[in-house]
Amino acid sequence: MKIAIGSDHVGLDLKIHLVELLTSWGHVVSDYGTTSSTRTDYPPIMEAVARAVAAGVTDRGIVLGGSGQGEQMTANKVRGVRAALCHDVYLARMSRAHNDANVLAMGARVVTATIAETIVVTWLTEPYEGGRHERRLQQIADLEARERDGCQRARELPDIVAGATEVPGANGTDPHSTTDLARGR
């Protein structure tokens, strides 16, 4: 399998470890950086990994940072990418089986190298179930297409918002409401 990988300075050591591991397993790995422990901004690196996956240059991608959250968010901005933040085996399994995730995000401050290895093995080997999940993936793709056509999306928004229902007690009058608690009342 062809795998794109990238990290910021915090994820560098984990990335180096995973590159060695993946190549020893026979995967072809493309490293999109960083190669230094010097503080670096992660978005350009994560975008490069995501674009490699979206373009079909690689089959999958792995993005690493301190928590993995910003890395996942960045990768998910690229159309066709379904990046999943997975800090345990269950999430890795479900991200593949139900969501056909094509980019894995992890935080080097959250998982150990040993746990990361187990997550990667699970994520690379878990098959996508298809079936009932196909409809949901199509809905995600449709949302991406609508976002691309921003003017059309803006016209549809009032209909979407109109479908919401008000939560009882969230008007600030109930002293035990979550709204009052959030406001410090």
What do these coordinates show?
This protein has a 5-stranded parallel β-sheet with strand order 2-1-3-5-4, with helices on both faces. The protein has about 180 residues and is α/β, with parallel strands linked by helices. Strand 4, helix 4 (about 90-95) and strand 5 form a beta-alpha-beta unit. It contains 8 helices and 5 strands, in the order E-H-E-H-E-H-E-H-E-H-H-H-H. It has helices spanning about 10-25, 45-55, 70-75, 90-95, 115-125, 130-150, 150-160, 180; strands at about 1-5, 30, 60-65, 85, 105.
Look at the helices and sheets and give the structural class.
Answer: alpha/beta
Work out the radius of gyration. 19 Å
What's the pLDDT, averaged over the residues? 89
- Give the low-pLDDT segments: none
- The total strand number stands at 5
Q: Could you state the order of secondary-structure elements as H and E?
A: EHEHEHEHEHHHH
What proportion strand?
5-15%
The shape, in one word, is globular
Characterize the biggest β-sheet. Answer: 5 strands, parallel
Q: How much helix is in the residues?
A: 40-55%
Report strand order across the widest sheet: 2-1-3-5-4
SS field, number of helical segments? 8
Q: First CA to last CA: what distance?
A: 55 Å
Structure in a nutshell:
With 185 residues, this protein is an alpha/beta fold.
Name some characteristics of this structure.
185 residues, 8 helices, 5 strands, 5-stranded parallel sheet, alpha/beta
